[in-house]
Amino acid sequence: MDQNVLEAWLERQDLPHSYLETTRRWFAPLADEIAEQQKRLSRPLIIGINGCQGSGKTTLGEYLKFQLGEDFGLSVICISIDDFYLTRAQRQKLAETVHPLLATRGVPGSHDIPLAMKTLQQLVATDSRQEVAIPRFDKATDDRADISTWGKVASPVDVVIFEGWCMGITPQEEHQLGTAVNELELSEDPDAVWRHYVNRALAGDYQSLFDHVDYWVMLKAPSFGCVYQWRLEQEKKLAKSRALTDGSKIMDEQQIARFIQHYQRLTEHALEVMPSKVNCLLEMSKDRRIISSTRPNGGLA
Length: 301
Hints:
single chain; alpha/beta
């Protein structure tokens, strides 16, 4: 890829020039590998990216989309499981009927999996050409964006990149749910009702969604302890990137500290069980640099 073209992309993404080394050393070989995998199929290729909050899943997805388009002429769409959250009203209903913690977006059970499945199937359908509406969730207002703001993509595409913090995670065993992992679970879910609901949701339709993925990539953090700082940086970037309105829901440091506790259990579970199962494992340092790349399960999943 021409360096000027790549530098222009970095500027559009608001990334430092030093990010060039990351793309060359770690991401470009992965894009080449994905392109080779796509050639072997007679249908669109679906890539799943797992990584904790703030690990750079979106940036990786956008880079892969960029290179696969520039170097191989492939049509690529990046979607995030975050854009398939239930609406605030739907989550509030769950909070009232199941458990108050389900008002907070993030965990399995707070996504509209049928909508995600429908969107994915439309994107890869090879028997018809259509415009597919891509849902969008506005994290600043904590609600699904109006349908008039959703993007549209012509299908079928060559590659779908589907990223999300809980992508690919398997449910825990029942005996693992009894002991609280943090203060949130201890004080707000003492009877483990929320934990069991989340685990049952993950064991259900989420696994059916994950089964559609052909090739798994994991951005592996050193530990869950990194998530607070990474999520704080992410929230500050979100606040900077938009003109905030009276309805905005940007979180402060204390809110972030509480918010990430919703994710701790399954993030730690993913760090334990997923590395040996993915096709491409990108290990990260505490300062979010990639330090190694391995292929535990090379080739198509």
